[in-house]
Write a structure and sequence with these properties.
Pfam families: DUF188. It comes from Chromobacterium indicum. The chain is α/β, with parallel strands linked by helices and 147 residues long. Helices cover 44% and strands 16% of the residues. A six-stranded mixed β-sheet has the order 3-2-1-4-5-6, sandwiched between helices. The chain is globular, with a radius of gyration of 15 Å.
């Protein structure tokens, strides 16, 4: 059982929540990024640096993830790929990706990409709120308790 983190875009506060949970429970925690990350010195927490390039970190996570694992990401296509492998995925706001909703989320993502490509200005997601952080910590604790 491992928690994999798509770490290039992961908010610092979420990384801190994950590290505290890993230190408390002993679960293996792996941050995957194409940049050097500093992580706490603990036998169950590590950073895996991959080469720079489009989807290199995503591909590495998808290659290594197992059905008993959890992915932390904001990347909907990556979440879809790991759900297909039987793993679970959670975003930074504590929302679980599911097989029942991932197709609709991919469709909306693609639609928004098309709008942006055609010059339409779209707003990004709102900043991470305290309620989002609490929802994330709560969902993480639920996942850890089930293990």
């Amino acid at each position: 059982m491992t928690i994999w983190v798509d770490a290039d875009a992961c908010p610092k506060v979420i990384r801190e929540v994950l590290c505290r949970a890993a230190q408390r429970t002993g679960v293996e925690l792996v941050f995957v990024a194409n940049q050097l990350l500093t992580v706490p010195k603990a036998p169950n927490i590590r950073a895996l640096q991959v080469p720079k390039g489009f989807d290199v970190a995503d591909n590495e996570i998808a290659r290594r993830i197992a059905p008993t694992d959890l992915l932390i990401t904001g990347d909907i296509p990556l979440a879809s790929e790991v759900l297909a492998k039987g793993a679970q995925a959670l975003n930074w706001r504590g929302e679980a990706f599911s097989k029942e909703t991932i197709a609709a989320q991919l469709t909306m993502r693609d639609f928004m990409d098309t709008l942006r490509a055609s010059g339409v200005q779209t707003e990004g997601p709102p900043p991470l709120s305290q309620a989002d952080r609490q929802a994330f910590a709560r969902q993480l604790d639920i996942w850890l308790a089930r293990r």
